[in-house]
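Progress against Task 2.4 (sequence-to-structure conversion) is shown through the following example record, which the project officer requested during the mid-term review.
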Amino acid sequence: MSDLSNRLAERTLELVNIPSESRNEAEIAAHVRSLVPASFAPEYESEDAFVWARPRREGRQLVILAGHYDTVPAQGNVPGRIVDGVVAGLGASDMKGGLAVMLELARALDEADVEPEVDLALIAFGKEELPAEHSPLPALFDDSRVVHEAGLAILLEPTDNTIQAGCLGNLNARIVFHGVSGHSARPWTADNAIAKALDGLRAFAEIAPRPVEVGGLTFTEVASITQIKGGIASNVIPDRAEAVVNFRYAPDRSPSSADAYLRSLVPAGATYEHAGDSPPARVVTSSPLVQRLRAAGDLALEPKQAWTNVADFTSRGIDAVNFGPGATRYAHRRDEQVEITALERAFESLWRFLTGTV
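Structure tokens generated for the chain above:
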């Protein structure tokens, strides 16, 4: 391996080998902080999120590199290992490989005799793998000044080294069906809530995927029934059944219109409970900085067919995209891994972008 490949692989493995399941991130947060070079001054600091920035220069645009350091629970994949051209282990793809690239870029810029074309700031944060209400980013946006100066934020989520712009909204709704309980030997004396659910959920099950073009990219809007429960015993007709519908809605819808659409499908007698929503991200494909990033690595531009924290940035008027070395197909898997060549390509693409050597 080249010296760069070796540095990136070893740094990724080092991060993988620090357990950092969400809510147990103190050790890796401290380690990440120790790796940020002194030329990046701390601008914001909390228990779960940090911002560092190089001194601002007049007339230079600010770019933010951002990544989370927490992981899902381990599946027998800690410690990690380097084998057959990959770094394997918990979080290698999502997203300690991207975090390693971010840190090694900062360290390389600190050591190199080169003046970056853009100003640079770094964000590292935890609790990303938890529901949105646990995110430390809203507090960061409230109290950090420099984040709002950014011309572009790049989140190093796993994207297979493509630029993934925008993201789908993520709305959950609980549909509750009501009946009358009774003895299963005399079902005519009852009103079966499960039978009502089977009929009432048909409209949600039949929602067809909807392709939507936004910013030249085609997103696919989909709805899925992801949970269903009802009944208390095998000999009792249930008087309540409920289901959760997960709606991944396209960036052409507002949160209120997405909510109204699902509500319109609820049958008479059932009730609708809003169970959380993360709005979609603005699609920033026309951004000159995004186009420069694309040219720097000859990178493909794709829609983000999921929800990511880019939405936290774009909802506050900050252009943001996903770009990282991890393979989406390996995220959260027992055999999670990242190719060392992918780490190197991500590093080199970002180096050319930051230094203006496109």
